[in-house]
Write a structure and sequence with these properties.
It is built from 12 helices and 9 strands. By secondary structure, it is α+β, with helices and mostly antiparallel strands. It has a domain at about 20-115: Sandwich (Immunoglobulin-like). β2 and β3 form a beta hairpin. α10 runs parallel beside α12. The two termini are about 20 Å apart.
């Protein structure tokens, strides 16, 4: 399993985009279009902020994800004209799924969500719905953005106060809980991070895949691989186009010694994003376990081409050394 620093790096890459987050582009050098819209709560037609909107191109597995702003608005740019599978999720709301044709002819998409008919998530005094706190969004967003920048710059300790400030102003802000979890994870506060990710999952009614993936990686550290796999599968059900989710699934399957499944998951991650460099190291480890040193060397070479001085450079060197020893008869 990848070490803590790599896990954090991948989770940061997954979680910090405040706008569009895309896998590898499905096509190149073609005309692109934009798509924008607003997510509303039915029947009041009130804007929903922090709703997650995903467009999935089923034929290729390419996906784009973004979140709504304080006015419930979202926008995608640089989309190839096509029919997409649309998924919209928001806390305490039923999931919206359907097909939408994006060709530049529709100016605004109006997407309406219904309140969830499931029993409400157990609440404490600090759990308030997104709609109840619409007026506090600006200050919460500002504190969240400041904390996120600090965490990106390596100041996990300093970021804590800003995420806590955002949550004081908007206790339902599940993304703030998620990034608070990332900060605590980086600081080695694994128990607190686990609680933060779980809180994010509860507040989003299980609708925020990055927190499912993040909690799964914490469980991996605790050797709770079966539960980690369950969470990753739930996250992938929401974001089937997630390359990082496929990679994490492969990590867990490898830990469970299901190498054939792990190989398929790593390849699926690379199919969705050819720049998912760490997936090449996972494939190299799988080939090493299967005693295929030439394949190990090929995968390591692919990793080093993408990220020659990345966090797995030392791991790559060790894999190469062991592969050469096996080829020359030195064994492993």
């Amino acid at each position: 399993m990848a070490g803590r620093s790599l896990t954090l790096l991948i989770l940061l890459k997954l979680s910090f985009s405040s706008g569009l987050c895309c896998a590898q582009s499905p096509v190149t050098e073609v005309a692109t279009v934009s798509a924008s819209g607003i997510v509303l709560l039915t029947p009041e037609d009130r804007p929903i902020r922090h709703a997650q909107v995903e467009l999935l191109l089923s034929s290729t597995g390419w996906a784009a994800t973004t979140s709504t702003d304080n006015n419930g608005e979202f926008k995608f740019v640089g989309l190839p004209p096509a029919s997409y599978h649309l998924t919209v999720t928001a806390p305490a709301c039923e999931r919206l799924e359907g097909t939408v044709t994006v060709d530049g002819s529709v100016e605004t998409l109006f997407l309406r969500l219904y309140r969830s008919q499931q029993p409400p998530t157990p609440r404490s005094d600090s759990v308030v719905s997104v709609q109840e706190l619409r007026g506090s969004g600006g200050k919460a967003e500002s504190a969240f953005a400041k904390g996120t920048r600090m965490l990106q710059q390596g100041d996990a300790q300093g970021s804590l106060a800003y995420f806590q400030r955002a949550l004081a102003r908007d206790p339902s802000y599940y993304r703030a809980y998620h990034n608070l979890g990332l900060a605590n994870y980086e600081l080695g506060h694994t128990g607190q991070a686990e609680g933060d990710f779980q809180k994010s999952i509860e507040l989003s009614n299980g609708g925020y895949a990055p927190s499912q993936f993040a909690l799964a990686m914490v469980l991996c550290e605790n050797q709770e691989f079966r539960e980690a796999e369950r969470l990753i599968q739930k996250g992938l059900a929401m974001e089937p186009g997630s390359a990082i989710g496929r990679y994490f699934l492969g990590v867990v399957q490898f830990a469970l010694n299901r190498t054939a499944e792990a190989e398929k998951s790593a390849q699926a991650a690379l199919w969705r994003n050819a720049n998912q460099a760490e997936a090449y190291i996972l494939l190299a480890k799988i080939h090493e376990r299967n005693h295929n040193p030439y394949a190990v060397m090929a995968e390591v070479a692919a990793y080093l081409k993408l990220d020659p001085h990345g966090p797995l450079e030392n791991e790559a060197s060790k894999l190469l050394q062991r592969a050469r020893q096996e080829i020359t008869g030195g064994g492993l």
